[in-house]
Specification:
Length: 455
């Protein structure tokens, strides 16, 4: 018979006769599985005897359903029963997940009640433990992130999600220099928090508050089994997320004839140009399986006939964030080269656009997988699709072997897929996408396709 799973703590009274009968039935089933040739012979069954154990298992199921089990949220179950804020936030996330699947309003009401209790408990903990032990700080980080996940699950555009995002930034920034920031949990949370690192500063036209050597040097945590190449791509993407808001703001000033000169912006753009690792990218690409796209329309099959199959979500995130940050850095550098008035830069601009075409196709071939992995996929595609839109604007067509994809025919397809990601009453139009793509290269602030869905 296979070895039993870990012994669960018994914090409740002795099991009832019914519970003992269920445990005996599970034991019998395991013996039957172990004695046969069933492929599931190693499957074990147990009934948790405490409310904490039940909550741990239910939260793990919800996180796995959202494909977040390999993110920093994988640390949460171990803190169940040690923090009221985490307990209530976990119940709220579970309720939001059930409501998302079934649409029962009663589930939503109960989830909102626990959400309110989690917010209250978090405020009390922050006031009580200001400058306190690292464990309290970890719990505060986890709670704020769970609340953000709760909000984005119920409604991706609610203002509270943005508030929790800002709160998470404040907690992380206040922890700068503390020994606990070397732990895996805070580092994995920092990488999860790329929206606060990049999106909010870009929306406000500001430099990222994480733009210093301390945060730039923080390598990703390995919550799952990721190869060193995937880890490298994710680190480079994070460095670009941190530095790009400054470059975007500088380019905006230069285009408006403000205090920043083209030379100042160009200097930073050249620094970001070397934040790349072609060897690591090739290793990841060569390790991906390619399969025919399971498209619903003939048009989609013609545009993306084949799609990538990633091993897991960390590999997907590492590649996607690397490709989209590289596109942004390349577009900004190409724009600055064109503003310099130097005719000798034409060849280099063409080279940057050619690279972006390749990165566009990589992202498009990843779209199918992204749709299959819940929030993780949607978060990556939201920004990635805008970078694709911008790169497509820069060229007349995309040549892939014998196929030619004309940009003007590609735009309606990209717009349709982008609107698929959002449960909005009013869909985005081509003008919204144009403004968003322009905003990422120093255009006017306020693009709805960015500010409306990216807290």
């Amino acid at each position: 018979m296979p070895k039993s799973t870990r012994r669960l703590k018994r914090t409740s009274p002795q099991p009832t006769a019914r519970e003992l009968k269920q445990a005996q039935d599970a034991q019998t089933k395991n013996k039957q599985l172990a004695s046969g040739n069933n492929d599931n012979a190693a499957t074990l069954y147990h009934r948790p005897y405490s409310a904490d154990d039940a909550l741990m298992l239910e939260l793990s199921d919800s996180l796995d359903s959202f494909h977040l089990g390999k993110s920093f949220l994988g640390f949460v179950p171990s803190r169940i029963g040690h923090s009221q804020a985490i307990d209530h936030a976990s119940i709220a996330v579970i309720g939001a997940h059930k409501y998302f699947i079934g649409g029962d309003v009663r589930l939503q009401t109960n989830a909102l009640r626990h959400y309110a209790q989690a917010v209250t408990a978090l405020r009390i903990d922050l006031a009580k433990n200001n400058g306190g032990p690292d464990r309290s700080l970890h719990d505060a980080m986890l709670t704020a992130a769970l609340l953000f996940c709760f909000e984005t699950t119920l409604d991706p555009k609610v203002a509270s999600g943005s508030a929790h995002n800002r709160g998470l930034s404040a907690i992380i920034l206040a922890s700068s220099g503390r020994s606990c920031m070397k732990d895996e949990l805070p580092r994995s949370l920092l990488y999860f928090h790329w929206k606060g690192v990049f999106n909010r500063p870009v929306v406000l036209g500001q430099v990222s508050p994480f733009d210093n050597e301390y945060w730039l040097g923080m390598r990703p945590a390995s919550c799952g089994r990721v190869g060193k190449e995937v880890e490298t791509l994710r680190w480079l993407a994070q460095k670009l997320f941190v530095r790009l808001p400054r470059l975007i703001a500088l380019v905006r000033e230069a285009k408006m004839g403000g205090g920043a000169s083209v030379d100042e912006a160009m200097k930073l753009a050249e620094v970001l140009a070397v934040d790349r690792d072609d060897k690591a990218e090739n290793v990841v690409l060569h390790g991906l399986k390619v399969a025919k796209t399971q498209a619903q329309t003939m048009n989609e099959t013609k545009i993306i006939p084949f799609s990538y199959e990633f091993e897991d979500t960390p590999q997907y995130e590492g590649a996607m964030y690397y490709w989209q940050t590289r596109i942004m850095a390349n577009r900004l550098l190409a724009l600055l080269l064109s503003l310099s008035g130097d005719e000798t830069t034409t060849t280099r601009i063409q080279s940057l656009q050619d690279e972006n075409v390749r990165l566009v196709m990589n992202q498009m071939m990843s779209f199918q997988y992204g749709l299959s992995v819940g929030l993780v996929g949607a978060w990556a595609i939201c920004l990635g699709w805008i970078t694709v839109w911008g790169a497509v604007q820069d060229v007349e067509c995309i040549q892939r072997g014998s196929r030619t994809l004309w940009s003007e025919r590609l735009r309606p397809f990209l717009l349709q897929k982008y609107n698929l990601l959002h449960r909005l009453h009013v869909a985005f139009g081509e003008t919204d996408m144009d403004e968003a793509a322009e905003m990422l290269v120093g255009g006017p602030l306020g693009a709805r396709a960015i500010t409306g869905v990216m807290p």
